[in-house]
Amino acid sequence: MSTTETSRGADRLRADDATTEAPPAAGLKAVGGVAGWLDDRTGAAKPIGYLMKKVFPDHWSFMLGEVAMYSMIICLISGTFLTFWFVPSAGQVVYDGSYLPLRGVTMSEAYRSTVDISFDIRGGLLIRQIHHWAALMFIVALSVHMLRVFFTGAFRKPREINWVIGCILSMLALVEGFAGYSLPDDLLSGTGLRAAEGFMRSVPVVGSYLSYFVFDGPFPGEAIIPRLYSVHVLLLPAILVGLFVAHIGLVFVHKHTQFPGPGKTNDNVVGFPVMPVYAAKAGGFFFIVFGVLALIAALVTINPIWAYGPYDPSPVTAGSQPDWYMGFADGALRLLPGWLEFNAFGFTFSFNVMIGAILLIPVMYGLMAVYPFLERWVTGDEREHHLLDRPRNNPTRTGLGMAGLTAYGVLMFAAGNDIMAIKLGLSINDITHILRAAFFVAPPIAFWVTKRICLSLQRRDRDLVLHGRETGRIVRTADGRFFEQHEPLDEYTRWLLVQHDKHEPLQLTSGVDEHGVVSPTARKEKVRGALSRFYFEDSINPVTPAELAAAHHDGHALEAIEEAPHEESGSRPALESARREPPKRP
Amino acid sequence: MSDNGTPHGEVVGQDSDAYGATAVRLDQGHIEGTGGLPERFENPGLPAHVARMADHDEKAAKRAEKQVATLFGLSSLFTIVFVVAFFAIDRESTAFIPGIGRTSLYNVVIGVCMAIALLGVGVGAVHWAKTLMPDEESVEYRHTQRASDEDRRRVVSELTQGGTKAQLGRRPLIKYSLLGALALPPITLIVPLAAGLGPVPKDALSKTMWKKGDRLVRDPERTPIRADQVTIGSVFHVLPESIKDSQHVLEDKAKAAVLLMRLNPEDIKPQKERDWGHEGIVAYSKICTHVGCPVGLYEQQTHHLLCPCHQSTFDVTQDCKVIFGPAKRPLPQLKITVDSEGYLVADSPFREAVGPSFWERGHA
Amino acid sequence: MNALAARRRHPAAIALLLLLGLVVTGVAYSFLSPRQADAAPAAASQIQDGKKLFLANCATCHGLQAQGTKAGPTLAGVGAASVDFQVGTGRMPLAKPDVQAPQKKAQFSDEEIAALAAYVASLAPGPAVPDADASSGKGGDVAKGAELFRVNCAMCHNFAGSGGALTRGKYAPSLRNVEGKHIYEAMVTGPQSMPVFNDTNIDPKSKNDIVAYLHAVDTQENVGGMNLGNLGPVSEGLFVWVFGLGIMVAFAVWLGKKAA
């Protein structure tokens, strides 16, 4: 545990602060029993000792990634159980189990085995429901976790790699979920596979070949269920586990970020050590997540495949949607207009399908993955950041995030347009038209509104620091004036409001050197400068001690800044004299 | 972080009340001034630790201990109840539970037991940590991620030395052949996988199993349909009779599913649609031209066909042209007629590819 | 000579006597004439009752002879089944002009509905009210009904009959807890946007199977717990975002807070 060399004001931590140290005895004494036997053969005591002392900060929003991780582990556990009974085969059989409405119906083995798990295997329905609810929870938690990381700027150096890994994990989780719910080969998910075949067809040049390669011939074929099975059970879990181990490993290497606050600096982590506090809390939280998912699985049905019926290309159900996390792509397909498909040179270009089905996901994830690098280029900020941003302190980033979220939300709600129509008494045609417009109109509005809200929150913070908290006590002076007493903030509360960085647009050279030669990167630099201004031209900067001092001098709306004539001596005569006088206004 | 006092506010005006300085708006701020105050506030350090009840009151600590023990005990108890219920409750029993309705008693009981068993452990452990484990904040120091310059130099020198020791520089033949040797062998794995991938479609996407003379049969009963059985306003879900001989039923159904409707002939606008139908009975492919869902929703009064997946809407009175939604092409029509016994039959196969568009489709 | 006798040559006496005679004959006739007994064609009085109800409640939109107006279609040929369905489920009389007639509380009693049905049936031949046993779902093959339902009905009404959207604000309503005969009648008559599924399309036994399936769903729809409306992944997604995430975050907040 080495300390940094630079000394900053914040090094004035509590002098008697007790840092955690392993009791000296434990390192020297031989550890008995099994642990000793293992350590004799692996030397594991050292890294384990190191890991046990690691400090993790305590904020509820840091638990979101844990919820995602635990949900994934619960999927792995419940999924293993399911693999013992699920049959990944499209071979046709006649049902003869205990669920009467399906007796005598011809169906695939995959569907039959799923119905058996639901009705004829003890505890099968519970495990199936835990598995599916945990899958939904996994993607919900990782999405909210990603939003938290974005809005607090936790993706900045040195965590860009982790952000990219996270984006890949998120995208693979979507595919894993899609493969998973398509395995039972029921009417709803089979309709989804049918649409997937249509998506593949829309790829130019190789579309029909792609469709035939993936499905091993015409749709539906007998290969897609077993292939989805190996993707869902073997390929993607392996990649997901590998990437997520790297993800967690990097968190250990970088140490977790922390929200700013008294005592917290960019060079430390304040929190609780793994042993015993975090082991108990994080370990306990795993059981809590599992318990909540078991409770939901006990009380709420999910994916009632017995009611959908086996997949057949002829019937279809009203309200055909994919699981929620694919909703944005489904919504995009509902909103994209038909005139985007056209024939040219004897070939068909189906952009109405391709944009939503093939391009949307890579483009969306690509933009997300690239964002940290873009922000770094625009802001020119090359420092390591371990203190999180309060979202209000970076209004442009927060606004951009909200704009992106709004666009995503429009698409996701579009996927439920027929459900909204029947539940809210609207027309699907009207909903579609409104959401088509909203996709373009709502994000800029969201950006502008969010940015304005952030800026006003920042101004309010400044106000709070400069003028203190309104106490609600009215005081009357001897000469008959009334004013409200303000209580200045204590230094702990104040710190949170003044600790953030000052932001300024980049000052860039004109691009032309002294001989009038235009620099080759001049155009890029101009773009960079313009973007930097877009980011920071409105920035509201934290209060400085000088401003606070000036604010104490009068209660008028206009503050005054002292210009002391004796800068070199470091004395502050005018200010000090002002302080010594009894204040005209508190 | 150095900073020169670039005032980021506007100079509003002189104020004689002020101490000879110009008055400046401070709602954007970051003016350090020249009065000698530090440029930024200082971190006040961690606030004083506040003890919990269990830290100084043994009774509170004992109470917390009992609470944790109760939670753990509850968890163990419900594990036992779970095991008993797992075997004892009849798998097919149902019960009426308020808020849910009639549901599988088995699922609810074992699920709730499992939930309490798990939550007991989890909540107990967290409560233990919160009340009894030390809650004084610890501080761990960070170091820059970057390895030291010395480490970097060492690695670079090891690598270059390694290259020199391997005589890479002196052996240009090795250098040139190395690239191929590294890049090409994975092809031995990729080629079998790629070459083994499915059949080539050729023209299969453009053909369905419908032939001239194929009777239209109901889905799923597979009984043929007489023209007089189809009344105005009705819709029949139809397959070709030859599906009974198909070796790939689902694959053929995925292209051959057809919708049969009867309209008043005066309502049908295009002459071609009337000609390809039979006295107002028309047959259209059921496979949506958007991404292939079955277009089943027939609105009898408006004569519109709606696809439930992405809401493409087709107008049956206008040869199923698209009137709303993301589809582009109209549904292909199947030319039908009646045979000698009055049963509806296909008069020709589909004249164009059914289902979603694909690259080679062009105008076919 | 009393007062009455004194007026026996009054000119009004003849008219009054005639009137008295008519009234006495009429009353005697109505009491003494044989009752007409017809069953299958409704009693003339039932048709008359129906006509009276029709004129009072339906003629504004459907025309005085049920010939149809701009506001409502002709009822000639729709049959007793249509009336039994539309009026029995409360869809008719229509409360206000709208894209669709919503189901509401029936405004008429069973006898009144039967009378209306009889009147409309008398206008022209049309589908009759189905036999109670053949449309109650009793003895129906649930599995067969399920298969037929999925092919013919689920695309509009949803796999469990929870209802679905049609174009321009119209919808296929929920089929939860609908009487068997109303389901049967809807299939036969094809109300509003619904296509006609006459007996040559789906035969009567198959229709009974479909009713049996829907009634089975009514009693069994919550196998795994709360069914969230049987609307599919949309409601499941909403549930996990609101309650799933909400509970997890609540626990996370509790976990991070300092103990008392």
CATH superfamily of one domain in chain B: Rieske [2Fe-2S] iron-sulphur domain
Task: Report the C-alpha radius of gyration of chain A, rounded.
Answer: 30 Å
CATH topology of one domain in chain B: Rieske Iron-sulfur Protein
Provide mean pLDDT of chain A, rounded: 88
Q: Tell me the number of helical segments of chain A per DSSP (H or I, 4 or more residues long).
A: 21
Summarize the main sheet of chain A: 2 strands, antiparallel
Tell me the major beta sheet of chain B: 5 strands, antiparallel
Can you walk me through this structure?
The complex is a heterotrimer of chains A (586), B (364) and C (260). Chain A is mostly helical. Chain A has helices at residues 24-28, 33-42, 45-52, 63-83, 109-119, 124-151, 160-182, 187-201, 207-214, 224-254, 274-299, 305-308, 327-335, 351-379, 395-415, 417-424, 428-467, 491-498, 522-536, 545-551, 573-580; strands at residues 55-56, 92-94, 106-108, 268-273, 341-344, 347-350, 469-476, 482-487, 559-560. Chain A is built from 21 helices and nine strands. In chain A, the strands form four sheets. In chain A, strands 1-4 form a two-stranded antiparallel ribbon. A two-stranded antiparallel sheet of chain A has the order 2-3. In chain A, helix 4 (63-83) packs across helix 11 (274-299) and helix 8 (187-201) runs antiparallel to helix 9 (207-214). Mean pLDDT of chain A is 88; it is low at 1-6, 24-28 and 555-586. Chain B has helices at 53-56, 58-88, 105-131, 149-165, 172-183, 187-196, 249-256, 271-276, and strands at 11-14, 22-24, 94-97, 101-104, 138-141, 216-218, 235-240, 258-262, 281-285, 297-299, 304-306, 313-315, 321-324, 333-334, 336-338, 344-346. In chain B, a hairpin with a 5-residue loop joins strand 15 and strand 16. In chain B, helix 2 (58-88) runs antiparallel to helix 3. The longest helix of chain B is centred in the first third of the chain and has 31 residues, at 58-88. Chain B is an alpha+beta fold. Among the domains of chain B are: 53-131; 205-361, Rieske [2Fe-2S] iron-sulphur domain (Rieske Iron-sulfur Protein, 3-layer Sandwich), CATH 2.102.10. Helix content of chain B is 32%, strand content 16%. Chain B is extended. In chain C, strand 1 and strand 2 form a beta hairpin. Chain C has helices spanning 3-6, 12-32, 44-57, 59-62, 79-88, 110-123, 132-135, 142-152, 154-157, 180-189, 204-220, 233-256; strands spanning 164-165, 171-172. A two-stranded antiparallel sheet of chain C has the order 1-2. Chain C is elongated and about 115 Å long. Chain C is mostly helical and 260 residues long. The longest helix of chain C has 24 residues, at 233-256. Among the domains of chain C are: 44-123, Cytochrome c-like domain (Cytochrome Bc1 Complex, Chain D, domain 2), CATH 1.10.760; 132-221, Orthogonal Bundle (Cytochrome Bc1 Complex, Chain D, domain 2), CATH 1.10.760. In chain C, 53% of the residues lie in helices and 2% in strands. At the A-B interface, helix 6, helix 8, helix 9, strand 4 and helix 11 of A face strand 2, helix 3, strand 5 and helix 7 of B. Strand 4 (268-273) of chain A pairs antiparallel with strand 5 of chain B, so a sheet runs across the interface.
